[in-house]
Design brief:
CATH topology of chain A: Chemotaxis protein chec
Number of domains of chain B: 1
CATH superfamily of chain B: Response regulator
CATH class of chain A: Alpha Beta
Oligomer: heterodimer
Distance between the termini of chain B: 8 Å
CATH architecture of chain A: 3-Layer(aba) Sandwich
Structural class of chain B: alpha/beta
CATH superfamily of chain A: CheC-like
Helix content of chain A: 25-40%
Strand content of chain A: 25-35%
Largest interface: A-B, 25 and 22 residues
Largest sheet of chain A: 7 strands, antiparallel
Distance between the termini of chain A: 15 Å
Number of helices of chain B: 5
CATH class of chain B: Alpha Beta
Radius of gyration of chain B: 13 Å
Shape of chain A: globular
Structural class of chain A: alpha+beta
CATH architecture of chain B: 3-Layer(aba) Sandwich
Largest sheet of chain B: 5 strands, parallel
Chain lengths: ~160, ~120
C-alpha cells in the first residue's frame, strides 16, 4: 500500500471515530463528509493530538471557526444556545473532543499497529504548514448548522 | 458516598459527574482533581468510596496515580474513564488493580451497566 492510500485509510477511520463521537456525545444525527485529497483548512483555531507507533507518526486535528467551536462546545457541555461560555471552556471542550476522536482512531487501528501511543491535545489558532517530510489529508464534517475540518498529518517514512 | 473524579479536562469532569448522577449516584458527594498528584491529595484527606480517573493527564497520569495509591495501601475502588479504550489498556488497568474501564465516548447506560457489573452501588 503506498503512503497516500495508507493515509486515506487513516482518514476514513478518523471520520468513523468522529461520527461515533457526534452521535453519542453531541446528539448529531446526520453528518455529511467531504474527503479532500489535500489540506485546505487555513488560519483557523484547532486542536491537535499526536498518535505515534511503528506504523508512523500521525497528528489528528479538528479545525473550525470560533463561532462553530462555541456551538460545538455548548452541545458537548449540555448548555443552551444563549448560555455564556468562556474561551477557556471552549478550548477545554474542543481539546477533549479531539482527544476522544484520536482515541477512537487508536482503538480502530490497534489491531493494525499495537504500538500506537496517544499524546495530549494542543490547541492553537493558525494554519498548518505541511513540510516535504509530511503528508496531509482533510475531511470536512458538515452538521448543516456547523462545519469542521478534520485533519490528518503523517510523517513520511524515509 | 464520596466519589473522586480525576481528569485534566474540567469539561469532562462535569460530564462524568452528570452521567454518574443520571446513573443513580445523584446523592453522592463529588470531588475533583486535575491529575494524579491532586488526586492523591484528595485521597489522603477524604474517605473515598470510588475513584474515576482519566488515563492521559499531565504531571501524573491515571495509571501512575493508581500504582501510587495501591503502594500507599489505599484499596479504594478505582475505575478508568478514558479514550484509551483498547484490550491492552484494559488488561494493564486490571493488572494494576482497576475494577473497570469505561471508554470515551460513553453513555449513561454504559456507566450504569459497568458500575453494576463491578458491584458499585449508588
Amino acid at each position: 500500500m503506498n503512503e497516500s492510500t495508507e493515509l486515506e485509510r487513516w482518514c476514513d477511520v478518523m471520520a468513523e471515530a468522529f461520527t461515533e463521537l457526534a452521535e453519542s456525545s453531541l446528539f448529531v444525527e446526520e453528518i455529511d463528509f467531504v474527503h479532500l485529497g489535500w489540506l485546505n483548512a487555513k488560519d483557523a483555531p484547532g486542536s491537535y493530538v499526536p498518535l505515534v507507533g511503528d506504523s508512523g507518526t500521525f497528528t489528528f486535528g479538528i479545525q473550525g471557526s470560533w463561532d462553530d467551536f462555541s456551538k460545538l462546545s455548548r452541545r458537548f457541555l449540555f448548555m443552551d444556545e444563549g448560555d455564556e461560555i468562556s474561551d477557556e471552556e471552549i478550548v477545554d471542550a474542543i481539546n477533549e473532543l479531539c482527544n476522544i476522536m484520536a482515541g477512537g482512531v487508536k482503538r480502530r487501528m490497534v489491531t493494525h499497529d499495537s504500538s500506537l501511543k496517544l499524546g495530549l491535545p494542543t490547541f492553537f489558532s493558525g494554519s498548518i504548514h505541511v513540510t516535504s517530510d509530511q503528508e496531509a489529508r482533510e475531511t470536512i464534517a458538515d452538521f448543516k448548522t456547523e462545519r469542521f475540518h478534520l485533519v490528518a498529518v503523517k510523517q513520511k517514512v524515509k | 458516598m464520596e466519589i473522586l473524579i480525576t481528569d485534566d479536562s474540567k469539561a469532562m469532569r462535569m460530564i462524568v459527574m452528570r452521567h454518574m448522577r443520571q446513573a443513580g449516584f445523584e446523592d453522592a458527594d463529588f470531588f475533583e482533581a486535575g491529575n494524579g498528584i491532586e488526586g492523591l491529595e484528595v485521597t489522603e484527606s477524604h474517605d473515598l468510596d470510588l475513584i474515576l480517573s482519566d488515563w492521559n493527564m499531565p504531571d501524573m497520569d491515571g495509571y501512575q496515580f493508581l500504582i501510587e495509591l495501591r503502594s500507599r495501601g489505599h484499596e479504594v475502588p478505582f475505575g478508568f474513564v478514558t479514550s484509551e479504550n483498547t484490550p491492552d489498556m484494559l488488561s494493564k488497568a486490571r493488572t494494576a488493580g482497576a475494577m473497570f474501564l469505561i471508554g470515551k465516548p460513553f453513555t449513561v447506560d454504559i456507566f450504569r451497566e459497568t458500575l453494576r457489573a463491578a458491584g458499585v452501588a449508588g
